[in-house]
Amino acid sequence: GQANYAAANSFLDALAQHRHTHDLPAQSLAWGFWEQNSGMTATLGEADRSRISRQGVLPLGSEDGMALFDLAGRVGEAVMLPMRLNFAVRPAVVPPVLRKLVSTGRRSAVGAAGAAAGGGLVRQLEAMPEEDRFDAVLAVVLGEVAAGLGHASAESVGADRSFQELGFDSLIAVELRNRLSEIAGVKLPSTLVFDYPTPRELAGYLTRTLGPRQASASELLFRQIAGIESILAGISPGEVDLVQARERLRDLFSQHSEAEAADGGAAQSGSLLGSTDDELFKFLDEELDL
Prior knowledge:
Structural class: mainly alpha
């Protein structure tokens, strides 16, 4: 509900910068979160304050605020941000204005499940049996939901209770989507908690979306060829009998060409069988985009 306030502030920041470039007096202070209640912050609940804290913003006392106000007048910058920041916190999504101050990273507030996920959830799912994947994803979701609500433990979050019943508002919903997007390494829809209104349904969607798919025959072949290329790049020419390696590759292509000819690909088969070494490897490079 602060869109109009944010727009007015943006205008004043720009006005101060504009006057500053013309050597005219102006300064805009974008204050952080004040400890003393004001008209905007008096209605904040514990979940709201917890959300602000998780973003690394600490409340600013009146005495410190007045000291920063005096200090700002002695600094020749048009726009400044007097605020207290907790650099030990690594929020899932750092606001653009703070990204040069805070190194990216992630630290879950609840349990080891979220911390272990740390951007590698897909890799974890690939390494575990299919029957275990849903429970692993559900544990991550419950941990992040608990963190979003400011709970100390995921045990207080029911997997089948709706997000609305749990106390979610639009800000917490967006924050959850952002954190899960980072953990999963994929961009998730902004309507995530509305499309899947309980932690269990959301975990089911993520399990289906992130679960490892069966690689195609072409992908498996290209991975093996890329592996050969990597090996060749890391060895000296004298360490491997390249002539023998080329003969093995020629034999493999010969077998493939014969099978292809039986299916009507005789023209291409003949061209491969009659190729020189340089032509054969050029063909490989072009076909496989190496």
